[in-house]
Each structure stands twice: as C-alpha cells, then as structure tokens.
Amino acid sequence: MIRVGVIGYGYWGPNLARNFSECPDTVLTAVADPREGRLADARRRFPGVRTMTSADDIFGSPDIDAVAIVTPVATHAALALAALEAGKHVLVEKPLASSVADGERMVAEAARRGLTLMVDHTFVYTPAVRLIRKLVDEGELGDLYYYDSVRINLGMFQHDVNVLWDLAVHDLSIMDYVLGGRPNAVSATGMSHVPGKPVDVAYLTMFFEGTLLAHVHASWLAPVKVRRTLIGGSRRMIVFDDLESSEKVKVYDKGISVDPSPENVYQGLVGYRSGDMWAPQLPVADALQTEIAHFAECINQKGTPVTDGEAGLRVVRLLEAATASLDAHGLAVPVPGGLR
Amino acid sequence: MIRVGVIGYGYWGPNLARNFSECPDTVLTAVADPREGRLADARRRFPGVRTMTSADDIFGSPDIDAVAIVTPVATHAALALAALEAGKHVLVEKPLASSVADGERMVAEAARRGLTLMVDHTFVYTPAVRLIRKLVDEGELGDLYYYDSVRINLGMFQHDVNVLWDLAVHDLSIMDYVLGGRPNAVSATGMSHVPGKPVDVAYLTMFFEGTLLAHVHASWLAPVKVRRTLIGGSRRMIVFDDLESSEKVKVYDKGISVDPSPENVYQGLVGYRSGDMWAPQLPVADALQTEIAHFAECINQKGTPVTDGEAGLRVVRLLEAATASLDAHGLAVPVPGGLR
Amino acid sequence: MIRVGVIGYGYWGPNLARNFSECPDTVLTAVADPREGRLADARRRFPGVRTMTSADDIFGSPDIDAVAIVTPVATHAALALAALEAGKHVLVEKPLASSVADGERMVAEAARRGLTLMVDHTFVYTPAVRLIRKLVDEGELGDLYYYDSVRINLGMFQHDVNVLWDLAVHDLSIMDYVLGGRPNAVSATGMSHVPGKPVDVAYLTMFFEGTLLAHVHASWLAPVKVRRTLIGGSRRMIVFDDLESSEKVKVYDKGISVDPSPENVYQGLVGYRSGDMWAPQLPVADALQTEIAHFAECINQKGTPVTDGEAGLRVVRLLEAATASLDAHGLAVPVPGGLR
Amino acid sequence: MIRVGVIGYGYWGPNLARNFSECPDTVLTAVADPREGRLADARRRFPGVRTMTSADDIFGSPDIDAVAIVTPVATHAALALAALEAGKHVLVEKPLASSVADGERMVAEAARRGLTLMVDHTFVYTPAVRLIRKLVDEGELGDLYYYDSVRINLGMFQHDVNVLWDLAVHDLSIMDYVLGGRPNAVSATGMSHVPGKPVDVAYLTMFFEGTLLAHVHASWLAPVKVRRTLIGGSRRMIVFDDLESSEKVKVYDKGISVDPSPENVYQGLVGYRSGDMWAPQLPVADALQTEIAHFAECINQKGTPVTDGEAGLRVVRLLEAATASLDAHGLAVPVPGGLR
Fold this sequence. Notes:
The first copy, chain A, is α/β, with parallel strands linked by helices and 340 residues long.
C-alpha cells in the first residue's frame, strides 16, 4: 500500500486526493496547503487524513511514500526536488515545470535516486486518446497530415503562465502520446488583452519532419467552450470532440487521392474520397483512476510511466520554445528534443 | 439598363450571369469562355445570350457597358485592364488580383478613366456580415479583442494559388468591412501535402495596432465543413456560423471585467461576466442580388462601391504578405497599407 | 419520348416541371394553371412550353402522353380521373386523394385502362430511405420495435387538410416502403389553434401486429424545424435526420438483451447493449430526378411503380382513419388495408 | 436543526443523503436499507451516520424529525403512512404513490397530523423551469398552444411501473408547476417489447380546456438520449433542452398572426411572425439543494411546499388515467382533478 501526501488543495488537488483515497493500491495519508480553510475542507471530505500547512512536514514524514504536487507551475521544481531528495516518488500536475532547466533537474534527480517521476498528463489516460493512438499506430489514418486543435473557453486566467501553458499543454501531451514524430520547430502568435497579465489568446504551429503540421488555438477569452481536435491522414481523418457525451471520436473514411503518374501531378489532378463515418464505442473508464493505478504500479514494479518525467520535459521544451516565438511574433524557434 | 458581359463560365460564373439576368437594372448580354461546352450550357440557360470563345470579342462590343471577370486569379489583371481600356466598368471575382502590383495597376487605370472597379467580396453583402458591422460600429462589442475564423472543408484544390487566397480571402474581406483598424503585420504557417501543389492547410495571424488580434484557419483537407467566426470584444462576443440555417449570428453578453485600480491589476484580479445570448433575426436577402444591384447603382450614379478596387487591393496586400510569411515559416511580415 | 403536361404551377409544380424538362426520357410540353401570372413565370423559365388556364386543354391535347397533377388535394381525384379517361398516364402529388373512395376510383380506373398511376411519395426515392429499407430488409435491425418521427416547423398552414395530410403523409409513405408489416389500427390526437382552420398540431400512433409501434408528431406551429426519425429494432437502431447535410442516417449498434430463461424473465433482467455508431456514406442522387426517371420507365415498359396507386391508397386509408380518430380524441380506429 | 432519516439507499438515495448532510438546516441522522452492502457504502460516505436494515427503526427513533422515502414506487404509501403516524415529516421520491387511492390517504394523513408532506418533483426547483414559469406567468408566451416533450434514452427499465411513471412523471410535474390550467382528459398509447415487462415506449396526450394540448413521448428504448420540451404560445415559443450545457432555455419571438376580421378568417389567411431568439442566462443553482432547503423551511415555518402532497396527487391522477388509456389503446380517459 503506497501512502501518499497531496501538496496543494485548490482546484485540482481534491480530485487527485479522492482518487488516491479510492485506489486499492494507495492510501491518502496527508494533505498540505498553506490555507487553513482548504485543509478544513480536506478533513471534512477525508476524515482521518493528516493536514499540514507546510509541504516540509510531508517531506519529513517517514510514513509517506509518494507525493502529488498540485501547486502553481512556478513551484513544481522546488517541491519536486525536495520530495525526491526526501526519497519520495513524485506525481506532478501538468506542466512538469516552468522551464526546461528545471525539468531537466527533476528528471536527473529522479533517475539518480531510482524514484518514479510522473507527470499528470491526464488526457493520455482517457479511452478516447488511447483509441486514437491505437488507430494511428495501426496505420488506420495512413500518413499523418495534420493535428489541429481548438481549446477555448471563457476563463480561467492564470497569473504566472500564458494560455499555452494552461490549455495547449493538453494538446502537446496528447500529441506526445499519439504522434510518432517530433516537432523540430514552433511558431506562435498571441496577445494579452489585460494589462500586466499573460497572453490570453494564442496560436501555436508546430513543424515536424515531412509534411505533418500541428496547430493549437488556445484562449481564455472565447464566448463558447470548444474542445475539438482534427487529425488528418492520407487514409482517414478523425474528429475528436471531448464535449460530446457520446461519440467523442469520429473516424471519417475521407481523404484525397493523388494520381502519382508524372503527367497527372503536372496537371494537378487531386481527387477526393468520401466514405462512411464510424464512431467507435469507447470503454467506460475514468482517466484519473487509470492514471493513479498506473502510478502505483510503476512504483511497485519499478516501471516507467507512460507519462514519465521525459514526456513532461518534451512538452516543456515545446512550451518554452513557443513562448520565445510568441515574444518574436511568430518567428520559428527550433525545438531541441521534440516529442518522442 | 446596363448591358453586361460575363467572362468565364465555370463554377461561379453562372451565378453572376443569373443575377445579371434577374436584376432590373442590368441585362445579361454576352458570355465568353474558351470551352464550347460551357457556352452551350449558357445558351440553354439564357436563351438569346450571345456567346463567344474569346474575351476580346466582349471588349470589342460597343453594346456592352460592363464586364464581370470570373476566371482564374492569375488572369484577373490582364482581363480587367483590357476591359477598362475598352471603357467597360468591371466587377472582378475575389481576390482582385494575384499580386499587389497588378492590383495597383487595376485601381489606377479605373481611376484614370473614371470607371467603376468593384471586387466580388460577396460576404460583405450578406445580412449576417452587415449586422455584425452594425454591432461593431455602434460599440455593442466594446473594444475589439480578436477575430478568429475557421474556414475548412474537403476540397477544392486550386492549382495556382494557396488555400489562403481561396478561403481566407473571405475572412479578409469581412474583416476589411467590419473592423475599424488595419493589420500592420502578418504571420502565416502552412503545409502542402500534395507534391507540386500549393499549400493546402494554413494558419494566418494578423496583428493590429493595440491589442486586436486576428486569425484564420483555412484548409482543403478537413473531414468536416466548418465556417465559424468568433469576434470578441470587451463588452460582448459574437459567434457567426455560416452553416447554421437559422441563428447564424449569436451575440453573447459575456466578457471579462478588469478592476482598473492599481492594486487589483497588481493582484491580477480578472472577473468573468456571463449573461444572455441573443440571436437577432436576419433579413432575408440574397447577397449576390444585393451586390449586383449595388454595382449597377454605382455605375449609374458614379458612386464608390463598398467593395471597390481599393478594398480588393487591401486584401491582396495581406495575401501577398501572408504568402511571404508562409515561405518564412511564420516570420512576421509587415503590411504596407493594411485594411481600411 | 414521353410528352408531359403539368397541372398546377404553385409551390411544388415548378420542381416537377424542371425535372420533366431535364429528364432524357420526358419532355415538358404544357403547363396549366388558372393564374395567368404563374403561367408567365412558367414561360419565362421554360421558353417554348405551352401554357393554358384550364386543365381540360391538356386532357384534350393528343400530343400529351402523361400528366402530373400538382394541385390542392381535394382536386386530385377529379383531375386524375379525367386524365385517365383521356388516356393519359398520371403522376399525382401526395397524398393521392382526399378520401379512400376517391383513391379507389383512381386505382380502378387506371387498372381498367392499363395506364400508369403513380403517387409522388418523394422520400421513397431518396438515397437515405432506400438505404434504410435495405438495412431493414437484410435484417440488420433485427425485429422492429418502433418507428418514431418528428416532422414539425412553423407553417405552412393548408386550408383544406389537417397537418397529418400535409406532413405525416411523408412518414406514412416512408413506412409503407420500409416496414414489412401493416398497421391495423390508429389513434390520433390533435388541436386546431386557429378558429375555422384544420388541426395544426397532431400526434398519430399506429398499431401493427406484434410489438411494432409507430408514431408521428406533425406540427405547423413549432419554433424550430425538425425532421427526425428513430427506428428501433432488437439488433440495431437508426436515427434519420433529414436536416443533417451529411450523416443523415446513423446506425447504432445498441439495444436490449433479454435473458430468455424463464427464471430471468420472471426476475425481470433486461440488459443494455451499447456499441459503435456508423454513418454510411449515401450516394449523391436527386430524389425527384430518380422518381421522374422511374415514372418514365414504368410507362415505357408497362411496369408497376414502386409508389403506385395502391401505395397511395394505403396511405390515404391511414390518413382517413387517423382523421376519424382525431375527431374521437384518440379512440383507436381500425384500418382496413394497412400498409403493404 | 431538522434530523433526517433516509429510507432507501439505491440510485437516488445517496443524492438526497448528501444534500441533507450539506444543508445548514438539516442533519443526516440515519439511513435505512435492507441491503447491508449499501449501508456499508453509506457509512463510508457519511462517517457517523446511523444505519439500519429496517425502516421501522427509523420510525421508532425519537431523535428523527423527518424522513425521505427513496424506495420503489409500490412501497411509498405504506412507508409514508407509517412515518406520518410516527409523527415524522415526509419527503417522497416521485411519483408520490402508485395509485390515486394511496396518494389520497397520504395527503389526508399528513393534513390530519399537521405534518409536512412533500414530493420530490426535482425539476420544479431547477432555474430553467422556474424561468419558464416566470415567462408564462408574465404573459410573455401569450395564450398557451401546446406543451410537447421528448424524454427518451436507452434504459433503465423499471419492474413495477411503465415508462410513463418513470419518465413522463417529470413532464407532468413541470406542467403542474408551469401551466395555469389542468388537463381534463388523457389519451395514451404504447407498447411493451419485453415479454412480461411494463410498457417501455409510450405516448401521452393531455387535453385541457380551450386549445392547449400537451404531449409526452417517453421511452427506455431509444438509441440517443433526448430531453427536449417545446412550449408554444401565441406570442412566443420556448425550446427547453435539458442536455444543453449552456442555453438550456431558448425563447423564440415566433408565432402566427391571424387576421381576426371575419372575411379573412373565412379566407383562411394565417401569417407567420419570425423574430429574434433569446437565451436568458440562468442562475447557477443546484435544484436538489434548493428543494431540501425548501423542505426544511416548510417544516420550520409550517409552510406549504410548492410540491406538496396535492401536487404529487395531481400527477398520480394523470398517471393512473394514462395507464387506463394505454390499456384501452388511446381511448380518452377523463381526469377528475387535473393539474392545478
């Protein structure tokens, strides 16, 4: 039984706490948050849990095996490093860190100590994304043409990171899991509409080797909530709409057919294929539950998480490059490591 | 009665021909197209119309007052200049020309001769876009934050221009009419997925003075057809979905409220306002019919078309800059004239 | 070449006229309508067509082989009988007649003279309905449980028939084509909200042998237009939404599974199956064009139309029974002949 | 502080228990259910709650002031009567009882003892339904023409009541609250598709004085979930879609206009008005929380609940009449009391 301490009990922390309390392989032992009111909430919800205003008390507790860090991004690295130094396994809310340098330190420290470092890329554990990866891996889409995502809504403004770190991070984590290749450069544009606050509307293009192109539109300023991803391939195309209650993933037997004979390429003949649409039944599974069980299993069996520190770091590399491109009004910025 | 010759009888030409034949102030006199089969179609549809395989025959006909040029973009300038030199008023399908230099020649020639030069920015004549302009002009949206448009479908590949010239041109013409400001730089990214063919998926960001940001996603490679534009302002936000049969324009009483007192800006307090949604009834009016009537009226009364040559030229300037940015992987390219 | 006269040039007549003029096996010879203005429209649209204010002139024209009757329902029988007596083949707009007695006379007269009598049940010729019949015929749905249709909009009020004769008739014609069985009784309820006018909102239940149940909601008083049909079977279920531009027909691999062992039926165990959804690509075909070609073929080859007079009569029997039930506030009224 | 015992801890009981535990005026004191496993769940969820396998233990507990009965419909009356006789206030899950006779006994007993008897018509406490009532009361819709509701999904079969008692009951409770009039007769049709089980697909028409007509389509056998209600009036029409995450209530400025002059009524001129659509912002409020607070307030202040026993009884009268009509294949069955 893995004994877990949750650090940070704001918006997302209670969800992790609940899942740790329900997972048969973990027990929720402690919750840390500087706000006494939040701790009172935690005690009401989880009678018997220990609460503390300082994360240090968690690091100093020998009866805690693992911690979940659910705090503002800027604090991830310091907390995770302290936890690793105290010999705890670590699950970090996305994004892993607020800089590549920080992320590299975290990954190195976990490796040195042989501890599990995992990032909470929740979407990777959803039935929809797992199905999409399966379709891509099995070649159902053919050659990949593009990944295009719109992830917009009204709110919630973050204070310390721009909207790409808050919303596009989901797409980067999905792409890291689903697409085979890795982007080698990014171009981002955006704008802040509130003086002194981070960019709230942003567009991010990612270039891959070959003709695969990816793009994410992220916004805190949209009148409607949209969570729609298109993935186009030479054989089939996918529409993934996460707000659909059923039929989240639709597979279209559509595409273009290019006559490869030289005279026709010259003449520019492009044909269109239009066929059936198919919405596969998705298994009913809670992503967070799957993720927590995977975290526990990796700790118990010294396995490598699907969303390990390296995966988190690949995403941070993209976000850091994207932010640099944002500042340069769309100038393409190379990405050292790319995705997997 | 204005006697009109239509040059080019492919996909769009028949629509213009029909509207010229139905407009009480114009008469469809001649149709020119090099393809004899197309001319046979025209004669069947419009008994009595004169048909000819060369546009020159139209330019040489003294009983023709005006021409509509509905041919591939690359041919617009030469045909329009020849028509103007022959003393004809000219309506050109969008985009006005395939280069700024060409467009400038066309505008100058029309001015020199005192002839009407109009570009077929059809959307400007739709009830939906006219309502949106009215809402913007009357300050209903407050300060403009962004214009965001998705205009995607499967097909139809053009041979001579990239997808921005084919699809994003609609948004540029709408923005030219609706927004007060003008973009001073653009950043575009995209990809061609068919060897030897133009870019088929593209993303275009436009920077304005202040914090207004515009973006268009254009694609010939999407499994679903989308025509959705979001316009966000400080007071209200609009969703314009051209594929909705009713309720094309929805006005959301939503936005953010920023406490302007210095301590709160410092603390980063951003509030959200969420209110009613309102879908105004749109008048039933055919855009093309409105446009043709306006063309006739401008000729008769020596007026300036809403979508005159200058409007067409402003759009071409953006497209030319966007294409340069595409080639430079998103590098921001300044736009000399911007929109109106 | 079959020479056709169209009687009635109001809302629907021009569509039939156009299709007769475009069909390679028919020629539009004459149009009759008492309104001179409508005839002027017809001449403008179809140069060379003969026009006349009296249908009698059509019946008396030896160069006319067939007529299409596109007039108010109450006039169908007299016009069709006159046409048959004049030796013309007849296509009648739906519903075939305003009473079973009239319909029977029409069917008998056509049979006596060996002439083609066809009713314009347009939906039967759509790719969507043809696909649905194929799925039903091949047993893809299993045992049929229900047919449920909502066919509502704002307007258009008819003066001489209630809303079932105007809107539900479409569903009755689809059911006649798609379902194997025949209803043996109907129960209808409804209301007129305008003094002196026919019932404008109505609900019609149809009972079949076994457990198949059908229902139609028809209304001229709805704020939104809906055209949605659910067809449920023991193996699969269909949603047919005629307003969808693509994916009109969706097939759901859903249903219930009943454990047939006696103890479980006793315990009442009903399970649910939930599987994939599949939206087959429909061929692009114009229903009216298909129908007109079929009419011509039946005349030329002395074939029996899919929607022959008998089919029209079966639908009228249901409508007549439904109207009797309406008057009796839902009392079940037996139907002599049922559907096919 | 009102001390509450919850009887029945199946699907809905936990929701009521949670709300009693969170409401500041009530405390969750005990839970009774014959299934020991359910009681273990209750103890885990609500540490400190007393659990018991027999409802009698609740009735015999002097420290319990009120009970919530969340058990199969057939047991409502006996449990409620026992609770009232023990001096407890009672909240009963909908429908109030399985027969009018039972419901009348419950209402009489509560009245005799001066205890609060309330039925859990949850929809009445939702912001959407409250807004609709306000619009109706203020005459915004004009004269009411119809109430039409579709409430269908796959599952869940009940063993002891047909689908009207399970699903249509929601609409009857909404109608009882929203509409001014009362139905004086009902006509229902339906079918059971599983041998030995209750009717699973049913259609219910309700006749009111004047021209108001109501209809509900209820089904456990639909491939898609639909919760859509249309309410039409002479001035405006409403679409209430409970599955919409935002814009649940849309108000259409649409209708018909009838020229009242005698000659025009004679001519049958009906015009259509089409205007704006408006989706009012709904307050964010949890219906069950509102309901529980109202229950507590009625007990404390000896008030009459909005959904008192009489309201529950009016709904049961309709359900009983509907079931009789179902058995008679749609024969109209008079309703003694109607709605309020």
